[in-house]
Amino acid sequence: MTDSSEVYAAICRFIGFDADDAARLRDLAPLFAAHGPALTDRFYAKLAADPEQAALIAGRVDALKQTHLRWLSELFAGDYGERYFAERWRIGLAHVRVGVRPWWVEAVTSFLRGEGLALLEANLDDPERRAAAARSLLKILDLDLMIINLAYADDRVDRLCRFTGMSRKLIERCIAQGR
Ligand code: HEM
């Protein structure tokens, strides 16, 4: 996990995710708080429309909607340091544990990008402010997705270690050999 949190910091630097992005996202908090419940409803309707996803959320959609709303409020809380990373990592592992296949997380992130941009278009009149807000929104959604993907990848190596009894270093070396 230490390595992955360093990767997170490096990615933030690389994509130029900075204090201005954090401030812009904080500014968007009231908009997304107002529209969050409707967005969350559409998110779970989307999952429920696919048989594989529907089976995973069956019987607990209302509870999941609450956790999704919390996730959404943290997305606009303006604090994206180590604690944010650790919490998003934990959420990633929750999906690994219940067997959500990783490409579905990619797919619903695409859905969230579209929904988020549509909200900005409908509610921010100033084109410059809207464009800057859109860039910050896309960055944080991509960062969240990257953290979840890192957690999935890390879990795969862990499983291989447990299954084979090999050390993590050896497994990493085997993977590197294939290049
Ligand atoms: C970017 C996409 C997603 C976000 C932001 C998201 C958000 C969350 C959050 C915040 C939690 C609560 C985790 C916790 O606090 O322990 C959660 C749990 C869960 N999510 Fe997602 N989710 C996403 C994609 C998906 C997809 C594609 C599925 C497919 C069905 C799914 C199904 C679930 C399930 C079943 C749980 C409960 C996990 C458990 O029992 O521990 N999620 N999700």
From TrEMBL:
<dbReference type="InterPro" id="IPR012292">
    <property type="entry name" value="Globin/Proto"/>
</dbReference>
<protein>
    <submittedName>
        <fullName>Truncated hemoglobin YjbI</fullName>
    </submittedName>
</protein>
<dbReference type="InterPro" id="IPR039379">
    <property type="entry name" value="Protoglobin_sensor_dom"/>
</dbReference>
<feature type="domain" description="Globin-sensor">
    <location>
        <begin position="10"/>
        <end position="155"/>
    </location>
</feature>
<dbReference type="Pfam" id="PF11563">
    <property type="entry name" value="Protoglobin"/>
</dbReference>
<dbReference type="InterPro" id="IPR009050">
    <property type="entry name" value="Globin-like_sf"/>
</dbReference>
<dbReference type="InterPro" id="IPR044398">
    <property type="entry name" value="Globin-sensor_dom"/>
</dbReference>
<dbReference type="GO" id="GO:0020037">
    <property type="term" value="F:heme binding"/>
</dbReference>
<dbReference type="GO" id="GO:0019825">
    <property type="term" value="F:oxygen binding"/>
</dbReference>
